[in-house]
Specification:
The complex is a heterodimer of chains A (247) and B (320).
Chain A: E1 6-9, E2 13-15, E3 18-20, E4 24-26, E5 31-35, H1 42-49, E6 59-62, E7 65-66, H2 72-78, E8 79-82, H3 94-99, H4 110-119, H5 135-148, E9 153-157, H6 165-180, E10 184-188, H7 192-198, E11 201-206, E12 209-214, H8 216-219, H9 222-229, E13 233-236, E14 243-246
Chain B: H1 3-21, H2 37-70, H3 82-95, H4 104-124, H5 130-153, H6 158-168, H7 177-196, H8 198-204, H9 208-213, H10 218-240, H11 246-255, H12 266-286, H13 296-319
The chains are: A alpha/beta (247), B mainly alpha (320).
């Protein structure tokens, strides 16, 4: 395994009373989507991969080293985590928010902060307080905060929730670009069409088990959708532009 | 150094010497001085002013850190239950009659603060959860408050009762250099610990999960907060009784002059808290009041509440 890989090894990771029979090795340079019905444990799995939740059994390894054995700061430098709740307690400016991403490094290096602002096209908004941002700008600013830490892995919980179609598409394009640049991107996605069209690999979990793991065409095949989500649905359209038709 | 910090330091440098001139006996540096002027200055007013500065700084820094820790602008150092714990210790020293012995009162108060801190750490356990911790603090505050009321209601003599009630109102009058030394080291150490907690408090701006993903160790932060707030507030209560308001109002006033990160608020709040307490104490000394002096806790509310209300009115206009 490469030393920038997160190996989910040892299998049978128990989380919050559920037994996830899970063994997977995620690869950098890919967008991996975690899908599943409500309550399947998607967010718990992501927290576990980020080292925020200790599994009851098994272990998550980063480059062969168990996350629990890594100093928190070392882990924080390698794995950037974007939680689902976009709460920010104080009305700080965009620039200050993005600067918080440097905390694991203990510096305020201008270079990475500037690069993150540029990557999310936030240069003109840098002095603006968060309370005066639109939803899309806010989502970009929060992602820029993670990027400022220059992590090798980006783990995001429902990053597209609360974004309209255009902003969602713009954000996913940026996430794809990050993966193309070599970053490992792991997303919990609710919208199966987003996962189908934009992920390189999809993990489907349900009832405490890994149901499918593979390219979206296979992992989200309509037969899988029927079993896991309990609905009859068909994929329409060309690869990369698919839509799910119910019924 | 930033502009507000410079202005605060200049204001403090001007206010401290001026405050020494004010009091029941006004000292006119350009006129005739009474014979005992030097004694008044060095033995009465200087320790008193330094004590006001120290306690104000500790309360201001604690308030700023608490608001950052709880991510709530309404948080106050009293929430951890450390001040009520210290006050309970002090009340017990009156109640048992030990208060008359030298160092007994501050020792009892510090023991009370330490007891509250230990109980807090014990209840909150290893989880590092902010909610659990705050609830534990509020429980301890209410328990200490109840025990204090019990001690007051069972007060052995009317004299002890009046001592307790007066002491609880908070004051830095009739304090000596001894009290300055008692407060100096714990307050400075407390502020240093709270400053060390600064980066973790900044991370907490993004919520607990994001803070942990940035490498924050909740348990370590909790220890820094309990020790920092405990040292500042505990030593403050030990020498001056309960002084409210500073920890709540000062971070509010200073936040607008910072980039709003909690770490950037701690030192300005310490300086502004020192200035506010010094000003309030001068008010206590110069306001003519039959039968003694205005108590510092009361003066602070008189000075701070209208100011705070004006601030709220302005906020309301901004929101409209």
């Amino acid at each position: 395994m490469s030393d920038s890989g997160i190996g989910l090894e040892a299998g049978r990771i128990a989380l919050a009373g559920r037994l996830l029979d899970l063994s997977a090795s995620l690869r950098p340079g890919e967008v991996t989507a975690i899908c599943g019905p409500n309550g399947a444990g998607k967010s718990s799995l992501l927290s576990c991969l980020a080292g925020l939740l200790a599994p009851d059994g098994g272990e998550v390894r980063l480059g062969g080293v168990p996350l629990s054995a890594l100093p928190p700061r070392t882990r924080a430098r390698a794995i950037g985590f974007l939680p689902q709740t976009a709460e920010v307690a104080w009305d700080i400016s965009v620039e200050t928010l993005v600067g918080l991403g440097r905390l694991p490094w203990g510096d305020t290096a201008a270079g990475p902060v500037e690069a993150a602002l540029a990557a999310m096209r936030l240069e003109d908004l840098r002095r603006r307080p968060l309370s005066r941002l639109s939803g899309g700008e806010r989502a970009r600013a929060l992602l820029a905060r993670v990027l400022a830490g220059e992590p090798r892995w980006l783990l995001a919980d429902e990053p597209l929730a609360n974004l309209d179609l255009a902003h969602g598409a713009a954000l996913i394009a940026r996430l794809r670009a990050l993966a193309a640049g070599g970053m490992g991107v792991v997303l919990v996605l609710h919208d199966l069409a987003q996962a189908m069209n934009h992920a390189d690999r999809v993990l489907v979990i349900s009832g405490g088990r890994l149901i499918a793991d593979g390219p979206p065409d296979e992992a989200l095949h309509q037969d899988v959708v029927a079993v896991v989500w309990g609905i009859k649905a068909r994929w329409l359209g060309e690869p990369g532009h698919r839509a799910l038709a119910l019924g | 150094m930033t502009r507000p910090l410079t202005l605060l330091l200049i204001a403090l440098a001007l206010a401290l010497p001026l405050s020494l001139l004010a009091g029941r006996v006004w000292l006119d540096p350009f006129g005739d001085l009474p014979d005992n002027a030097l004694i008044i200055l060095l033995e009465l007013r200087l320790p008193r002013a330094l004590l006001a500065l120290l306690i104000g700084a500790g309360l201001g820094a604690s308030g700023a850190a608490m608001q950052g820790y709880l991510r709530n602008p309404l948080a106050d150092p009293g929430l951890f239950g450390i001040a009520p714990g210290a006050a309970l210790g002090a009340v017990l020293s009156f109640w048992t009659g030990w208060a008359a012995a030298p160092f007994a009162l501050p020792a009892f108060a510090l023991a009370g603060a330490a007891g509250a801190m230990a109980l807090l750490a014990l209840i909150a356990g290893r989880s590092g959860s902010v909610t659990l911790f705050t609830l534990a603090g509020m429980m301890i505050a209410s328990l200490a408050g109840a025990l204090m009321s019990l001690a007051i209601s069972l007060s052995p003599t009317p004299f002890a009762l009046s001592e307790i009630v007066t002491w609880l109102m908070g004051a830095v009058s009739d304090r000596s250099w001894r009290d300055v030394w008692i407060a100096l080291v714990p307050t400075m150490a407390g502020i240093a610990l709270l400053r060390a907690a600064g980066p973790a408090l900044d991370a907490l701006t993004l919520g607990e999960a994001a803070a942990r993903s940035l490498g924050v160790e909740p348990r370590r932060l909790q220890v820094l907060m309990v020790a920092g707030v405990g040292l500042c507030v505990g030593s403050g209560v030990a020498v001056a009784g309960i002084i409210g308001f500073v920890g709540l109002i000062v971070p509010h006033l200073m936040r607008r002059f910072t980039d709003r990160r909690p770490s950037q608020l701690i030192v300005p709040s310490a300086l502004a808290g020192a200035l506010l307490l010094l000003a309030a104490d001068v008010l206590c000394r110069v306001l003519p009041l039959a039968g003694g002096e205005l108590r510092l806790g009361i003066a602070l509310s008189l000075l701070g509440a209208p100011f705070f209300l004006a601030l709220l009115l302005r906020m309301r206009r901004e929101l409209a």
